[in-house]
Amino acid sequence: MACFPSWSNGLQRLGMAAIAIALAPSAAIAHGAHIQARTTTAVEVQAAYDTGEPMAEASVQVFAPDDPQTPVFTGTTDASGRYVFAPTQPGDWEVSVRQAGHGDIAVIPVEADSVIASSFTNDAGLSPLQRVIVAGAVTWGCIGTALFFWRRGKQ
Amino acid sequence: MHIPDGILPAPVCVAGYAIAGGVTWVALKQIHKTSDPQAELPKAALLAAAFFVGSSLSVPIPPVSVHLVLNGVLGAVLGWYAWPAILIGLLLQAILLGHGGLTTLGVDAVMMGLPALLAGQFFRQRHRFAKALAPKPLLGIFSFLAGAIGVGLSALIFFTLIVFTIPSTLNQGAEQSFLTALMIAHVPLILLEGVFTVLLCFFLMRVKPELLEQ
Questions:
Q1: What range defines the domain where residue B126 resides?
Q2: Is the overall model pTM greater than 0.90, yes or no?
């Protein structure tokens, strides 16, 4: 009688082990894996600071047209500021690239077959010459304002 | 250091506009109190131009590059006029250069304008120490600190805002390490702007000391 409980315990364990094997996910039993390859159309974005320096290793979030709240793809740009994603449906895809509080959001219109709409043009930002002209114009405006009030003060 | 559109959550942008509105009201009221509110306008216009151009002058501090802010200078030389000058400068930067954004204009104004006003108030305290120090060292110390306080406080507000609003979907560790690198890069900028403020104040003291009377 003294050994009965331990025998019954052993039987219980055996039973539990059998149940555990039966319930284990099939992937754990099947050790084979397969990779399938196919060609797809992807969108490549490239982010740079306005100094021209690429935004390397910046955080990228890609939002699908139907959900602007939760990103579908997240990742980081490579050393030249590039990131590639494959849109799964047509519509306006939003891509946000940010690093240390700086960044930008681009809306990319994607048509059927993951092709970017032909109407889409990249915002190239200002060229150095345009920057100089803008800065010059604003400075000149400020000097004009200063001279105007300076003369008025003198009269 | 301008925060662009889409980085901050909407409530923060709204709060920025609310605070900026309140400060604008106070600043304009203070300006209105002066005997001739238009007397300081030429100076304010010229320094607004300097502020506008300053954000386009990037200073490479590897691995990042920072740009001049000059809000401490504006605060020291302009006092309350620094606020409208910065507000107009930021608006033009957002529209014309794409620095910052229209939704974050309020936040950016608070981030750069409030430290400018504080730096200005600090700079005015130098008259209290007029007996203890000779005029030139006194001006040197206070102008350096005013320039440093301006950009230093702005950097602090910037990092606080960004750290507390990093979306949970982003890689927090990576974002924080980049933020730290950018924060460290601002230390030389703080010194640089302090020195710049000293040079400008010494120059003004030599050529037109009445501009520094406040």
A1: 10-212
A2: no
pLDDT for B83-134, tens place per residue? 999 999 999 999 888 888 899 999 999 999 999 999 999 999 988 888 888 8
Helices B41-54 and B82-92 sit at what angle, rounded to 10 degrees?
A: 40
Q: CA of B129 to nearest chain A CA: how many angstroms apart?
A: 32
Q: What is the pLDDT of residues A48-59, one digit of tens each?
A: 887 788 888 888
Q: Where are the strands (E) in A15-124, listed by range?
A: 43-46, 59-63, 73-76, 82-85, 91-99, 102-110
- HEC readout, B133-188: CCHHHHHHHHHHHHHHHHHHHHHHHHHHHHHHCCCCCCCHHHHHHHHHHHHHHHHH
Where residue B200 falls (left for φ over 0; alpha for ψ -120 to 50; beta otherwise) is alpha
Using DSSP bridges, classify how beta strands A59-63 and A82-85 pair: parallel, antiparallel or unpaired: unpaired
CATH number, domain containing residue B48? 1.10.1760.20
- Does residue B5 fall inside a structural domain? no
Radius of gyration of chain B (CA): 17
> CA of B86 to nearest chain A CA: how many angstroms apart?
13
What is the rounded distance in angstroms from the CA atom of residue B149 to the CA atom of residue B129? 19
Three-state DSSP at A52 gives coil
Closest partner residue to B178 (CB to CB) among A100, A145, A150 is A100
Fold for A43-146, please state it.
Immunoglobulin-like (2.60.40)
Instruction: Please name the member of A71, A134, A143 whose beta carbon is closest to the beta carbon of B46.
Output: A143
